[in-house]
Amino acid sequence: MAFDLSTITRSTQLPPRLVVYGTPGIGKTTFASASPDAIFLPVEDGLGQLDVPAFPRPTSYQDVLEAVASLIQQDHGYGTLVLDSLDKLEPLIWDHVCETVPNDKGQAVERIEQYGYGKGYTHALTEWRRLLRGLDKLREDKGMAIVAIAHSAVVRFETPEADPYERY
């Protein structure tokens, strides 16, 4: 490919997409509440005493998609969508997959692991991508920043070479 200096352009500035990740109780939600004109999609009960605009708490993945769609389709003055939290959203996606996608034999499943090795998580990945397309549309068409909150977890790690220990 031949380059020509006349083809140089500037990128358009889109609002940021952030994942705020950390241990519980360190202020991730409080940090996100300071985002410009934030509206919360509280997948978990994490708002505490914060006085911020928020959708009703979704009870299904479909509720999450509908909340995002309402922001895409309707006029509003919000500048940031805060999704709180990704780790509480994931089981909703798994439930949605189990309810809507039969296994290879055409049977319904109750748990994401029942699809066979990794297949359920592949179906879930399709839904994550669907949600991300909606969030990108908010960012590109409505000029909204996206802040997603996620929690770290402490798990016990056991190895034959050392004593067990906990890690994030």
Compact overview of the structure:
With 168 residues, the chain is an alpha/beta fold. It has helices at residues 28-33, 61-73, 86-100, 119-142; strands at 17-22, 38-42, 80-84, 145-151, 155-159, 162-167.
- Overall mean confidence score, pLDDT: 92
Ends apart, CA distance between termini: 46 Å
Radius of gyration, in angstroms, nearest whole number: 20 Å
Helix/strand-derived category reads alpha/beta
Largest sheet: 4 strands, parallel
Strand coverage percent? 15-25%
Poorly predicted spans: none
Number of strands: 6
Strand order of the largest sheet: 1-4-3-2
Number of helices: 4
General shape = globular
- Percent helix: 25-40%
Task: Write the H/E string, N to C.
Answer: EHEHEHHEEE
Protein described:
With 168 residues, the protein is α/β, with parallel strands linked by helices. The chain is built from four helices and six strands. Strands 1-4-3-2 form a four-stranded parallel sheet. Helix 2 links the parallel strand 2 (38-42) and strand 3. Helix 2 (61-73) packs parallel to helix 4. The model has no long low-confidence stretch (mean pLDDT 92).
